[in-house]
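pasting for the record
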Amino acid sequence: MRISVVQMSPSADKAANIAQARKLIDAAVAADRPDLVVLPEIWSCLGGDRATKFAQAEPLPVAGGTGGAAYEFLREMAMTHKIAVHGGSIGELDGERLYNTSLFFSQTGEELARYRKIHLFDITTPDGQGYQESATYGSGGEVVTCDYGGFKIGLAICYDIRFPELFLALRRQGAELIILPAAFTLQTGKDHWEVLLRARAIETQCWLAASACTGPHQDASGETRLTYGHSLIADPWGHVIAKASDGIGWATGTISKPILARVRADMPVLAHRKLM
């Protein structure tokens, strides 16, 4: 299966972000003919104040109903290009709460899975910038997998990467490919992004596809925040097989079952694992 991880530089303007995503997906499909494209975390509205995030968020439909602009855009891309689309994550409006939610669509536009981010980014980065994701978003509580293209696919988002127990849970549910959209900060990303992704791939013996935001955006106070980019695909041995350059773009790689099977057969770590 060929996967393109799309790297965006979104803002708080959903319409502009959809236009950017459309251009990148169209270009990636034309150039590389992927079977699956993956967008970054919260690409539909990155930055802005709380009111803006609520205004740009969308209630998600039930059982094949019609969704909002971002939701229907993702379905359209899947059906137009006849590919699977992992929609990174968008702001999900559920009553008076927001959730940071991933959506996965088949090539027919059928929604196969949705995942609410479990671990929320409430930290201060090394440059002193504070982030309080839980002030706006609620936390999910469900480990989510789905089946597509002959692979069992596990879903995670950004800060989840620092919690290996979630990735072990995905492996125990049969995951062979784990998809992680992100908006990693520049300060944390330059030191931790690639090493964490490779570590999770090695530990779980899964393929790992990670799409990231890149470049600047404005927070609620108008302060500029920087995201790291460097979207990548890693194999179950931890090798990076495809990686995006700085700036807007994408990277494409091919994943396969035989490599996965060989790594797991040669080093059956799941069978050797002991509870501590």
